[in-house]
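ugh ok fine here u go
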Amino acid sequence: MNILITGVAGFIGSHLADSLIKANKIIGVDNFCDFYDPKIKETNLKKLLKSDKFKLYRIDIRNFQLLKKVFSENKIDIVIHLAAMAGVRPSIENPQLYTEVNINGTVNVLELCKSNKINKLIFASSSSVYGNNKKVPFSEEDSVDNPISPYAATKKAGELLCHTYHSLYNISVACLRFFTVYGPRQRPDLAIHKFTKMINANEEIPVFGDGSTMRDYTYISDIVDGINRSVAYIMKKTNVFEIFNLGESQTISLSQMVSTIEDVSGIKAIKNILPIQPGDVERTFADITKSKSLLGYNPQTDFNSGISQFYNWFVDQVDEI
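structure:
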């Protein structure tokens, strides 16, 4: 197959491309923006760039004319749309940017799928759409009408746009709600990577709230497996629209996350207790019954093993520098 991946140089995108390129041709799109050091993304793609089955376009999905060129120059069987401005707190500071990229950029992708008669799409959504959902675990059937950050609102908008294009143009879509993905190559602004770096350097870490907030941390290989299974599912189906939770289906508190990093690293964290941040949800917890049933999704990496693998990667990166 010929697979277009937007956001290919990012944390999830690069791992996914590494997996899919074994049996497919990959057309990658990424704008290498400065949300974090673009050199990190360059490193993520090192192996892929050596393959003659990988073609990279350094463009922004907001630029319709440049994106149109990607679609016109390549035969594309399925689009995996991962590109987005990520992060809850930054979205509160710059909602216009998040709207432009996550909503307008998604419309551009959908329009080009329509005009090029590409009827298979995977859309990367987020567990943030659930907001402070009172019912746990979170089910795909739950209402997601109460987002508490612009980022979450743009992801719900993306799901709605995907459904609109599915209804109008018979595009088969799987919207994947990722639950706090971590592992090697994780973005440096995310808590596990940030805390690991600061603990390793004996720096004070910022702990927001009393440590009781909880997340359903999902290891990167489990997420990649879930996306691969979603691709296989969509390729076999005609005119379907589905939403799938991809999580580990267990919760880890902030305090437990920090203590696990302490145990793995052998270094005691120095904590700076701060007020809870606007836009932060109290907990995330995925009901993966549907994903197990329809996709055969079955996450394999428990949190302790995942943190150990992440820490080994982190230490190797530090040693290289």
